[in-house]
Each structure stands twice: as structure tokens, then as C-alpha cells.
Amino acid sequence: MGGLRDYLVLYAHNSRCHSPCQGTDQGYLMSTAPSTFWADEIAAQAIAQHSQNIVCTGITPSGQIHIGNMREVLSGDAVYRSILAQGGKARLIYLGDTYDALRHVYPFLDEKTYAPQVGKPLSDIPCPCGKHESYAAHFLEPFLAAIRELGLDVEVKLAHEMYNTGEYTDVIFTALEKRDEIARILHEVTGKEIESDWSPVNPKCEACGRITKARVTAWNRESHSVDYTCECGHTGTADAARGGAKLTWRVDWPARWKILGVTVEPFGKDHASRGGSYDTGIAITKDIYGYQAPVPIVYEWISLKGKGDMSSSKGNVISIADMVEVVPPDVLRYMIFRTQPKKALTFDPGLPMLTLIDELDDPESKTRDQQAAELSMVSGMGSVGIPFKHLVSIVQIAGTDDDEAMKIIERGGYAIHDRAAVLRRMAYARKWLANYAPEELKFSTQSRLPDEVSALPPAVKNALGWLAEHLDASMSGDTIHGLFYEAGNATGTDAGEIFKGFYLSIIGKQRGPRAGWFIVTLGVDFIRSRLLEAAKA
């Protein structure tokens, strides 16, 4: 595989125009109706404060970049698009924090291989799979591919390149010159004591490669040099204009705002806590760098159903790259946009995901957030007019026979306007079934009557026979469904037991898809034959 920078060149070549006036992909944003959509409010604030807005998002690729990180990038995308829709000028930047240090050996890493790498920049550490140019690229490349699928039109910046090419040089030496002022700010805002030998700059030791163990002993702005001593025993001089030194996080963040001209930025609630890095950033960027802090988009975490907050370090994640293969990208965008960033989200890829897909697909749905839906449509797929839940059942009935699936769809009363679009949706349905479907939703039509049917009570068998005799191919799914209750009344049998007997006879389970529709889908002739067989078992 090529290097990360080669990948980004390809990414930039394929991304859409940043102009709010060009291309048709921006058309769905335009609206003259008043709105209280959360992204519109933030966008209006940004436009009022700045003539040109830079919306910046960023993630440290220390592990798998997961669904929980979507709030970072998609919140920024929502505001960026809203700025353009309101007639403002904006750019959307994604900054990969590739020059952050590896903090410790995560559970998914080999201890022997990566223990010596702790403290080194992620961009300098070997790739875990051996196929990428670095540890950072290993996690970043699939993420960048995934956000392209999610319709993000971003400019990509990599922190290690910014440090290596001198973009940080001026702010590094400004921080060194104003070290005491920064220390005062940190103390006043956080209430913590600052050590007398603390420095806002971490030199990179040329001997051990770490950016966490060396201390500054002297520096010279004109020569870009930073002298240091490292805990490994090495003493040397680093070139700060060539990646030889890195700002500490609480200084790096406000310095980045200054370098890139950031005016809007999403970040997690941890940074927004009182005395947190946004509070110190406000003061540092103003007093040290003479710049105004960006409009904040503070977001809550996304938790994984039954497992708590997603965490790469704990392995409690579902990656964005994996998820865009399972459901349409529009749906993942809608999931984020329909809920204000400050509200907690629980991600459940099971049945709730099916409900969400069908909510987005149905313009008449009472629960559908229309503005969030409009902002979500980036794939060009749109709705195929067939509920996703329905397709989940159809692909289990038809298997891999696409022609049979089309016949089943039409037999169920649905028109096929775009066969290719339906096939794409069916592909998503198959992947969802394979990865996230609960067992009770999985079924296969039995080729022969299951042996367990013989143990059904005689009353239930009698009712199944009554059903077989009264089924008619002209009946709708709803009519057939009601026939189960008529069978119960006619034979004095509990309808619930009749349903169980029916499903057991057809799929070998006591529960299954809605019976009336299921019979129409499978064909009345087949069902009648099977039920008559069950009645005699």
C-alpha cells in the first residue's frame, strides 16, 4: 500500500468543491424557512463573528477510529454545511493528531513489540499489520476512506507534517518566550501548581525517539534550536522547525487555532469541563497568541448498547469503516444529526438500527427530523420504497437469488423503480444480518416439515388445517393475518398458539416475520401444502 500522503493526494483529487456556489451536491441545503436546528444556530453565530470560517475537527489515531468518534467529524460537517447554506464562506479541515505520543501499550497491541515505542510519536511507530507507513496511518487510512463514504468534504492535515515542515515553528518559540505567562494561566484556570522546571515544549530526543522524556535547557529562536537533556541519558539540540519539538496538549490546541485560523471546533465534554483544556485554550490563544478562541461545539459521548462509552484502548468499539459497509452512510449521518450534540447517544446496531433506517426512508414518518434528514442525504441512494425490515426478511427467503427476491418484492405489492438501488439495499441487509441481527430475527424456510410439529396439540393442528382450507391467493397480507384470529374463533384455539404452530411448521421456530405478509411472500400454494401436512402430522 502507498504512503499516507499518497492516499491523501488521491483523497483530495476525489473530494468535492468547497465553494458554496458550485456543484449540485449543495442544493439540498438551501432553505428560506426559519429554523432552530442546532447546527443552524451555531453556524449563525460563526457567520456573525467571522467573514470566513474554518471548521476544524481532529482525532488522535491511537487506536481504531470508531462510531463514537462520528460526533466529532459529523458535528463539524453539519455546521460547515449550514454556514454555506446561510450564504457564508467556510472550509472544513480534518486534522489527524499523528504527532501525539503513544501513551501506553493498549490491550490490542503486542507488549514486547510496542513497549519500547511508548512515548514516541504515532507517526514514527511501526504499523501493527505491516502494510502501512506508520502506526498512525494504520488507523487513519480506513477512517479517511469511511468519512468519504459519509460524504465529508474535508481538507486533511496531519500534525506530524505540520511540525516537520515548520508550520509550528513560530508558535513554539512564542510559547517558550512566554513560558511564565502560560504557567500563570494554567495555574489560575486549573488551580494546579505548575512545576518550576515545566516547559510548554517537549523536545524529541534523537537518541530514544521519545517526545515525553526530554526537558528544555536552552533555546534560540533565530536558529530554531532547542537544547535538552533526556531521561535516557542523551543530551542534544533539536531543530524545532523540523519536528524536533512538540507543544504540550494545552498549548498545542490554542496554537493550532492560530495557525489554521480555526473559528468553529467540535470537541468532547471532557475538554469542556471547568478548568479543562478549552478553558485554558481560551486564555492562551488570547493572551499568548492574540487570537480569538473558536465557537465551541461540545458533544456527549456515544455509548455502545450494553457496554458503555466506546473506547479504542479498551476495545469496546465498532469502527466507522466497518459500519459504513453494513448500513447506508445517510443513516449514520442521520443518527448524529437528529440529536443535539450535548445529548447522550446509545448506539445499538441491532433492531433500533432497522427502525432508524425506515424512519429516514419514510418522508411521512411522524418521528422523522426533516432538517436532519435533508442534511443526511449524501449517497444519492434515497429511499427505494421498500422498508428495510422487509428486505431483511426477503434476503433470508430468496437467499442469493436476486431474481427470486425481485419476484417476492413484487408479490408483496411493492414496485421496483430502480433494480440496482434495491440490490444495494439488499446487500446492506445481508451484511446487517450477518453482523448484528438478533437470533430471533434470523430464519430459513425449512425444506421439510420439522419433526417437532408432530408434538403440537391436536387443537393447534386442527386450526392449521382450517387455515389451509381458507387461504386464498387473492387475499392481502392484512386479511391473511386476521385469518389466524378467525381460525382461533372457529376452532376454539388460542390464536397465539396457532401462530407458534405456523412458524414452527415453516421456519422451525416459534416466532418469525409478520405472518400475513410472510404467507404472501412465500406464496399461498406452498403455505397451504405445508399446513395441510402439519395438520396430519
What this model shows, in words?
- With 537 residues, this protein is an alpha/beta fold.
- The protein has four domains: 1-13 and 37-161 and 302-380, Rossmann fold, CATH 3.40.50; 169-182 and 189-246, Roll (SH3 type barrels), CATH 2.30.30; 388-438, no CATH class; 451-536, Arc Repressor Mutant, subunit A (Orthogonal Bundle).
- Helices cover 45% and strands 12% of the residues.
- The chain has a three-stranded parallel sheet. A three-stranded antiparallel sheet has the order 5-6-7, with no helix packed on it. Strands 12-11-13 form a three-stranded mixed sheet, with no helix packed on it.
- Helix 8 packs antiparallel against helix 11 (277-287) and helix 16 packs across helix 17.
- It is elongated, with a radius of gyration of 29 Å.
- The model is unreliable at 5-35 (pLDDT under 50).
Q: How many discrete domains?
A: 4
| Poorly predicted runs of 5 or more residues | 5-35
Strand fraction: 5-15%
Top CATH class of the largest domain: Alpha Beta
Question: In what order do the strands lie side by side in the largest sheet?
Answer: 1-2-3
Question: Biggest sheet, open or closed, and with what strands and sense?
Answer: 3 strands, parallel
What structural class do the secondary elements suggest? Answer: alpha/beta
Which helices and strands, and how do they pair?
Blueprint: H1 4-14, H2 38-49, E1 52-59, H3 70-85, E2 89-96, H4 111-114, H5 135-149, E3 155-158, H6 159-164, H7 169-177, H8 179-190, E4 201-203, E5 214-220, E6 225-230, E7 235-239, E8 245-247, H9 249-260, E9 264-268, H10 269-272, H11 277-287, E10 295-299, E11 302-304, E12 308-309, H12 320-323, H13 329-337, E13 345-347, H14 351-361, H15 370-376, H16 388-398, H17 402-411, H18 419-435, H19 458-470, H20 477-491, H21 495-507, H22 515-522, H23 524-536
Parallel strand pairs: 1-2, 2-3, 9-10, 11-13
Antiparallel strand pairs: 4-8, 5-6, 6-7, 11-12
